[in-house]
Specification:
The structure is a single chain. The protein is of the alpha/beta class and 150 residues long. Helices cover 53% and strands 15% of the residues. It is built from 7 helices and 5 strands; from the N terminus they run αααββααβαβαβ. Strand 1 and strand 2 form a beta hairpin. Helix 2 crosses helix 3, helix 3 packs across helix 4 and helix 5 packs parallel to helix 6.
Length: 150
C-alpha cells in the first residue's frame, strides 16, 4: 500500500515544484494562489498528513504539515502574514533580543533569528507539544543556536 501511494504521488512532484516556484514568484496573483490552494488541499487531505520542507521568502527553511491553510501558504508562497514579515524586516536588527509568543512551528522565529544573528536571541514560546516538536525541528533545520524554545 505504501509503495502504491508513493508511486501515485511520484508524478505530482514536478507539478508541485512548479507550483511552489510560481507561488513564490507570483504570490499576489489570484490565479496562482487558487492553483496552489487547490493543490495544497489535495496534498493536505492525505492520511497520514504529508509534511514538506518549505523555503521561506528570506531563505529560511520550515518543515510544515500540509493539512492547514497557513502551512500550505508558507509552503507554496514562502510566507503567511506578509505584513508581519515586513514589520520584522523593519524592526529586527543584529544583537537584539526578541520573544515570539505563540511561536507555532517557528515561521517568525526563524525569520527573526536570522535577522538578529548569532549575537542576538529569540525566546520562542509554544505550549502545544506536537507543534512545539516541529518548532524544535525547524530551529535545528536552520542551525539556529540563538533560539531558546520554551
Amino acid at each position: 500500500m505504501a509503495s502504491a501511494l508513493g508511486s501515485s504521488l511520484a508524478h505530482l512532484r514536478p507539478c508541485e515544484e512548479l507550483l511552489v516556484a510560481l507561488g513564490h514568484k507570483f504570490r499576489d496573483n489570484r490565479v496562482v494562489r487558487s492553483l496552489c490552494w487547490h493543490a495544497g488541499v489535495s496534498l493536505g487531505s492525505r492520511q497520514p498528513v504529508s509534511h514538506r520542507v518549505a523555503r521561506l521568502a528570506d531563505g529560511g527553511l520550515l518543515e510544515v504539515p500540509l493539512d492547514d491553510f497557513m502551512y500550505r501558504s508558507v509552503y507554496f508562497h514562502g510566507m503567511y502574514e506578509p505584513n508581519v514579515y515586513r514589520v520584522i524586516a523593519d524592526l529586527a536588527a543584529p544583537g537584539q533580543v526578541w520573544a515570539d509568543v505563540g511561536a507555532n512551528v517557528g515561521q517568525h522565529t526563524v525569520r527573526i533569528a536570522r535577522r538578529v544573528g548569532p549575537e542576538g536571541e529569540v525566546h520562542a514560546f509554544e505550549p502545544n507539544p506536537v507543534v512545539g516538536a516541529l518548532l524544535v525541528r525547524n530551529s535545528d533545520l536552520n542551525g539556529l543556536g540563538n533560539v531558546r524554545i520554551c
